[in-house]
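Task 17 of the worksheet. Students: predict the tertiary structure of the chain below and write it out as structure tokens. Keep your answer in the requested format; marks are given for formatting as well as content.
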Amino acid sequence: MQFSPVLNTPSTFPHYNWSMDLPVYNTLILSDLHLGAATSHAREATRVLKENVFQRLILLGDIFADLNFARLTKDHWKFLGYIRKLSNPKRNIEVVWVEGNHDHGLTDIMSHLVGVRVYQRYAWQYAGLRHIAIHGHQFDGFQVNNVRLSRLGTELYLKLQKLDFKSKPVVRLIDRLNTRWLRMSSKVAAGALQYARQHEARRIFCGHTHEAVRVEQDGIEYYNSGGWVDSRLTYLTVDDQGVRIHDYDENDYDERDKLEPGEHEHVERVDDRDSSQERSGADSAFADFADESGLLEDVEYESVGGRR
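Model answer:
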């Protein structure tokens, strides 16, 4: 099968007049954060979740880099804490975790810790169309046939991050070359399109390749959400205007911070404020998780973790 990936024109966070309401997305999709990796942009991902409004959040796999929790930083725990906060039933936001190849072995634990359900694939109806979200490693022949070798490669990759320069240029280059050498992007796209056709879906969403693309074939749309470990940080949104690939741009988000406090109080969620600024010096990464998630103040919360 031959096709040419069509990259969406990047759509960054809009320059809104903050006196107007933010758009409400039906679904926001984010994948391949690789918490525990030195290249993970967890702080930026948390900011995206805080400053967008959505009815459903899909974490489309590889939220973790591996099973070693000791590698999680303060920002990584704060991201997980915010996911738990979003999963609180009082918020009326559906939070879905789709398991990736790097998440395997962690999802049962984390589903209870952050209060979300974990799926191998997730399907939903919107605007009269069937949508499917699946991580995409299932369509990567190398990953499927070389699980042990892939895990060894992950371990070496994480160790190399410790030896690399501060901005991690070497490991980022390796990640890009690996994607191109294994032709992961085209393989995953081809497999996903076939899978969508077999399951009568009009749109299918994957991660895994770290390359945000859009492909349309025979009326079926394939989208890849990209990743949060390279210089290009991307996520997807679904609403009545269609599906968009967004590029995170720090400058767009900084515009809100430059406004006078009174100008954007109505879009700031009171319980999203960073209370770590009010804590005394001796705090810990897990304390940040508990604080960000609201565990210290919301005793009524009950976990809804489970697995399907």
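Marker's comment: The radius of gyration is 19 Å. The longest helix spans residues 147-163.
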